[in-house]
């Protein structure tokens, strides 16, 4: 318990009268922290803390990396900014050594402050001081996050586009230099590698690699690529919303958990410019922010996340999971959260110009690259609408090519309404793209009006294709039942297809192989929404627990090898 003497040793409380000391001591929680443990995470609800023993570091997450931005010693307080502003913690507070702190809940603080105006004034003064100046929160906000890497590459080089997309999706801040960048050598900080070696990546304070493979980039940047253990309670295939939700629940409930993601965490949602309908984000949230928060949460709770690794084979009998490159991990249960992949358009010129102005989907970071250009979008779903809005803040014009006679058939009303307010977005109805032209990069497209059958050539600085997606499940073992389009059958759908052999009923998200579950977009009958994927990912873990409790499974602590 915190004593009144200890309360009096905290600077801002020192001059309060003994009754106030007693009130604070009466409500303060006495918390001991091991080194590395957090008193409050960035984004946590407000509370006021006093440091009694040890040392605490404020930590700001920049680019997914924790940066220490100050220090608190015994007698200091922290949490005054969120308490005064009524916000969440703008930075986290972590014990740099074994520490003891007192925590006062916001309502207790306000109750004491109401009767002690001097206290409220002192805390207010301290909060102002912490926010102002170059070393305060204002300085932190003004300082751009330093790039973690510099990329040198041509705008229309497909491997450079792939590299930039990968860095974007892994939330790595980087500086991109092209031959057009002024003072290129100075910016690169050394002699330029020959053009035949581009793209080149230079990791700040690290190595430079020419024409890098994404796996190598992940290794250089310290993104996980190798499994630490040989076996896991659950192996999650895919790091989209469903996989990350499953990881959060599984890891927090004590299961040894690994997520294997072939590209970057976030899945399709990570490419969405703004998700407007996810509960709890009244002004919408960008897909990459949602993905990055989920990733931090899953990691903090103990899930291992591998990127740039794909699962190419599962042995249904032994539960061995084969990663690309030949590594094998063993799983007591498996959660398939591998979503869907963009459908490709088979049109003249498309394959040759893919990555050179033609893109399937678009990451949020893509919008600035359309600056001043006339860009075109194929597709009329919500993802196409969101991207049109995002591009319209940079591009000179955005044209949506719609095969049908109205957008309403496939796009939500709120997006259509927002599009109507942007003068630089237009929609061509009953129009199909017929060909793409360009030598080094996309220069123009041919579009055909299906009413008149007339073809027109339009100059184009970028063509983005959003025409739906397919399940890519051909690699799954034959024991896992699929529908004719490759979606995974689960629960009653699978039972109805006569694919179940056990006496007990299958769990709702269980596939035809007991102990292997499917959730999110890859599952037949799923809603194809972020919230649905998150819900299913979380539910899958409840079924994993039930499965692991079955007597014959519980008797086998690890998968057979
Ligand atoms: C541009 C865009 C905008 C959208 N906007 C919205 C919106 O506003 N609101 C909404 O509710 N929904 C939206 N959606 C839909 C939503 O994003 C999806 O429903 C959701 O992402 C599905 O989540 P998931 O985890 O099931 O699959 P995915 O998000 O597809 O994730 C699957 C992951 O698995 C990985 N993977 C696949 N196979 C393997 C393998 N063999 N090994 C390892 N990894 C593998 C993939 O790389 C991928 O990262 C949008 C989708 C897009 C594309």
Number of E-state strands:
29
Summed up, the helix count is: 17
Ends: how far apart?
51 Å
Tell me the helix content: 25-40%
Strand content: 15-25%
Computed CA radius of gyration, to the nearest angstrom: 27 Å
User: Please, what is the average pLDDT?
Assistant: 91
Query: In terms of per-residue confidence, which ranges show pLDDT below 50 for 5 or more consecutive residues?
Result: none
Shape: globular
Main sheet overview: 7 strands, mixed
Derived from helix and strand composition plus strand pairing, the structural class reads alpha/beta
* Small ligands present: flavin-adenine dinucleotide
Write a structural description.
The structure is a single chain. The chain is 28% helix and 24% strand. It has 561 residues and is an alpha/beta fold. The longest helix has 20 residues, at 530-549. It starts with a helix and ends in a 7-residue tail after the last helix. Flavin-adenine dinucleotide binds at residues 237-243, 260-263, 267-269, 271-272, 275-277, 310-311, 337-340, 361, 382-383, 386, 520-521, 528-531, 533.
Strand and helix layout:
Elements: H1 4-8, H2 18-27, E1 29-33, E2 38-40, E3 47-53, E4 56-62, E5 65-68, E6 77-78, H3 80-85, E7 92-95, E8 99-105, H4 106-115, H5 117-131, H6 137-142, E9 149-152, H7 158-169, E10 174-177, H8 184-188, E11 200-203, E12 208-210, H9 214-220, E13 231-237, H10 241-252, E14 257-260, H11 287-300, E15 304-306, E16 311-315, E17 320-323, E18 328-336, E19 341-342, H12 350-353, E20 358-360, E21 374-378, H13 382-392, E22 397-401, H14 413-420, E23 425-428, E24 431-437, E25 444-449, E26 454-459, E27 462-465, E28 469-470, H15 491-496, E29 516-518, H16 530-549, H17 551-554
The structure holds flavin-adenine dinucleotide.
